C-alpha cells in the first residue's frame, strides 16, 4: 500500500521549513519508526519516521528544498520487499531473538519525554545508571534539563541499561532515543558479588532522592552523600548541608582529600570555570529581554505590618489546628494583590503585539528560590482560594521547587508576579518584570523603624513595597493607586473580608 510522507504540522509562528537531511535513499528498506528525514525550522529540527515496515519508493523534495506544513515530500510502500527480507533473515533473526531472550530480554528504546511547544530542546544533565547495570522498574535512569524544569526518565521495567546514546551535556530533542534498555535481564542477581550490586542499588536509590544540584555539587567535590547528615524532608541531603560540610571539614574527609589533591601553596589564587545551566541561561536571557523591551518603571510605598502581625499572633494556633498549616504573610499578600487586580484590570493585562489582552482570571506567579535558580510557579484562580488554600498552594509549589519536581504545567501562565526578597534580608529592591506580564510586586524585610503617628514617634514594623510595571500599558495613576490599594488592605486586613 502506498503512503504519503508529509511534513509535520508547523506551529503558527513558523511559516515554512527546509529539508535538512534524508537518512534513507529511494528503494531502501526501512523498519517502522525509523527516521527517514530531518526537517529544519527556525526553532527546531523535526524528525519524520517511517509509518510501518516498507520501502521508500520516491523522494519528491531534495535536501535544501523549502517546504510547508503537511506538504507531501516522499512516497512510501508499506510492506514492499519485507516478506523476502524476512525469509532471508529468518534463521539469523530467530537466533538473535533467542539469544536476546536468554541473555538480555526484550530490547526497549529509552526516549526523551515529549517537550511542550514552548521548549525547543533539552540537555542530558545526569545519568544515574551505567551500561550493564541492573535496575528496577521506575528507578530513575537520567535527569534531562530544560530551560524550565528537570525531567526524570525512569526504567520501564526491571532490566539492564544496554547502551547510552546521548552523553551528559548533549542537547537532545523531544522523543529522541537516548539509550537502549533490555527488560527482564538481571545478571547482577545471578553473579557472585550480589552484595556489591545491592550496595550499588542502595547508592543509586539514595542518589535518586537528591536534587540535581546536590548531586552535581557532591560529584564536583568528591563527597559521599552518606557522610553528610541531611536536614531536609525525610532526612534528605540539601545543598546547604553540602556547603556546611565543606565549610567544616570532617576528619574522615581530610585523608581522602589529601590523596586526590596536593595542598595548595599559601596565597595561591585559583579560579573555577563552570558552564551556565540551561535554567540560568534562560533567566539571564529573559531578564535582559524584559529590561530592553519594556518601558519599565518602579514605584514605591511602605506598609505598617503591625495589624497583620497582631492578627497572626491572635489566630495562629486556632488557624493551624483547623487547617493543618501555619498562617504566613504570603496569604495576606496574595489576597491583597488579587483584590487590587480586580480593581485595576490594566495591571492584570498583558501586551500581545498591538493588542492589550485583559484576563478575567487571577493566576499569580510566586517567585521561589530553588537549588537551580529562581523560578516562578503559578498559583491559579487565587480569587477562589481562602487563606488556607493559598498557604497550602504556596507550600506545595515551594516543596516541588526544592525537590526539583515542578512540572511544565506548574510553570506556564501567570498574570502577575509576587517576589519576596525579604526572606533573604533585602530591605529595598527594584524587581524585573516577568514577561509577558505587565507588573511585578516586590516585598521586603519587615524592620522596626521610628514612625510619626498622630504627632508622636512610635516604633512600628515597617516594610517597603516596590511595584515594577510596564509604562506602555500601565499609567502612573493606575500603578500608584494599585500599590496604595495593597498598602491599605495590608494595614487594615478587615478590608480583605469586607471588600472595601
From TrEMBL:
Residues 84-108, 189-213, 228-274 are annotated as: Disordered. Residues 209-246 form the Peripheral subunit-binding (PSBD) domain. Keywords: Acyltransferase, Lipoyl, Transferase, Tricarboxylic acid cycle. GO terms for cellular component: cytosol; oxoglutarate dehydrogenase complex. Its cofactor is (R)-lipoate. GO terms for biological process: L-lysine catabolic process to acetyl-CoA via saccharopine; tricarboxylic acid cycle. Transmembrane segments: none annotated. InterPro entries: 2-oxoA_DH_lipoyl-BS, 2-oxoacid_dehydrogenase, 2-oxoacid_DH_actylTfrase, Biotin_lipoyl, CAT-like_dom_sf, E3-bd_dom_sf, PSBD, Single_hybrid_motif. One of its GO terms (molecular function) is dihydrolipoyllysine-residue succinyltransferase activity. CDD domains: lipoyl_domain. It comes from the Bacteria. It catalyses: N(6)-[(R)-dihydrolipoyl]-L-lysyl-[protein] + succinyl-CoA = N(6)-[(R)-S(8)-succinyldihydrolipoyl]-L-lysyl-[protein] + CoA. Pathway: Amino-acid degradation; L-lysine degradation via saccharopine pathway; glutaryl-CoA from L-lysine: step 6/6. Its EC number is 2.3.1.61. Residues 2-77, 107-182 form the Lipoyl-binding domain. E2 component of the 2-oxoglutarate dehydrogenase (OGDH) complex which catalyzes the second step in the conversion of 2-oxoglutarate to succinyl-CoA and CO(2). NCBIfam families: PRK05704.1, sucB. This is Dihydrolipoyllysine-residue succinyltransferase component of 2-oxoglutarate dehydrogenase complex. It comes from Paraglaciecola polaris LMG 21857.
Amino acid at each position: 500500500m502506498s503512503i504519503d510522507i508529509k511534513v509535520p504540522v508547523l506551529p503558527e509562528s513558523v511559516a515554512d521549513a527546509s529539508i535538512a537531511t534524508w537518512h534513507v535513499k529511494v528503494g531502501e528498506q526501512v523498519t517502522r519508526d525509523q527516521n527517514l528525514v530531518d526537517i529544519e525550522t527556525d526553532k527546531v529540527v523535526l524528525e519524520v519516521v517511517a509509518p510501518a515496515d516498507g520501502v521508500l519508493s520516491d523522494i519528491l523534495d531534495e535536501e535544501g528544498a523549502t517546504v510547508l506544513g503537511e506538504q507531501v515530500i516522499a512516497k512510501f510502500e508499506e510492506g514492499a520487499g519485507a516478506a523476502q527480507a524476512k525469509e532471508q533473515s529468518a534463521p539469523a533473526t530467530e537466533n538473535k531473538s533467542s539469544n536476546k531472550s536468554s541473555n538480555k530480554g526484550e530490547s526497549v528504546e529509552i526516549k526523551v519525554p515529549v517537550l511542550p511547544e514552548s521548549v525547543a530542546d533539552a540537555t542530558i544533565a545526569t545519568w544515574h545508571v551505567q551500561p550493564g547495570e541492573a535496575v528496577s522498574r521506575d528507578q530513575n535512569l537520567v535527569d534531562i534539563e530544560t530551560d524550565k524544569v528537570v525531567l526524570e526518565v525512569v526504567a520501564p521495567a526491571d532490566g539492564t541499561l544496554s547502551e547510552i546514546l546521548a552523553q551528559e551535556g548533549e542537547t537532545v530533542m523531544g522523543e529522541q532515543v537516548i539509550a537502549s534498555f533490555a527488560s527482564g535481564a538481571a545478571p547482577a542477581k545471578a553473579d557472585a558479588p550480589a552484595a556489591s550490586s545491592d550496595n550499588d542499588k542502595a547508592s543509586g536509590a539514595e542518589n535518586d532522592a537528591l536534587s540535581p544540584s546536590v548531586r552535581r555539587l557532591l560529584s564536583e567535590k568528591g563527597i559521599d552523600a552518606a557522610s553528610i547528615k541531611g536536614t531536609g524532608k525525610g532526612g534528605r541531603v540539601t545543598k546547604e548541608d553540602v556547603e556546611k560540610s565543606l565549610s567544616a571539614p570532617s576528619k574522615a574527609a581530610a585523608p581522602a582529600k589529601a590523596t586526590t589533591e596536593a595542598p595548595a601553596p599559601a596565597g595561591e589564587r585559583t579560579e573555577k570555570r563552570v558552564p551556565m545551566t540551561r535554567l540560568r541561561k534562560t533567566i539571564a536571557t529573559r531578564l535582559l529581554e524584559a529590561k530592553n523591551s519594556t518601558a519599565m518603571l518602579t514605584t514605591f510605598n511602605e506598609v505598617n505590618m503591625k495589624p497583620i502581625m497582631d492578627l497572626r499572633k491572635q489566630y495562629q494556633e486556632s488557624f493551624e489546628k483547623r487547617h493543618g498549616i501555619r498562617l504566613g504573610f504570603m496569604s495576606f499578600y496574595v489576597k491583597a494583590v488579587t483584590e487590587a487586580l480586580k480593581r485595576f484590570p490594566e495591571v492584570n493585562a498583558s501586551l500581545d503585539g498591538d493588542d492589550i489582552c485583559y484576563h478575567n482570571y487571577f493566576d499569580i506567579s510566586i517567585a521561589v528560590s530553588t537549588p537551580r535558580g529562581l523560578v516562578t510557579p503559578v498559583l491559579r484562580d487565587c480569587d477562589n482560594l481562602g487563606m488556607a488554600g493559598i498557604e497550602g498552594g504556596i507550600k506545595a509549589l515551594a516543596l516541588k521547587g526544592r525537590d526539583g519536581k515542578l512540572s511544565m504545567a506548574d510553570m506556564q501562565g501567570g498574570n502577575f508576579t509576587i517576589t519576596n526578597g525579604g526572606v533573604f534580608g533585602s530591605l529595598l529592591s527594584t524587581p524585573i518584570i516577568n514577561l509577558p506580564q505587565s507588573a511585578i510586586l516586590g516585598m521586603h524585610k519587615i524592620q522596626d523603624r521610628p514612625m510619626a503617628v498622630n504627632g508622636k514617634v512610635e516604633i512600628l514594623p515597617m516594610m517597603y513595597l516596590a511595584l515594577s510595571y510596564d509604562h506602555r500599558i500601565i499609567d502612573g495613576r493606575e500603578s500608584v493607586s494599585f500599590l496604595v490599594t495593597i498598602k491599605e488592605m495590608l494595614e487594615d486586613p478587615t478590608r480583605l473580608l469586607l471588600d472595601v
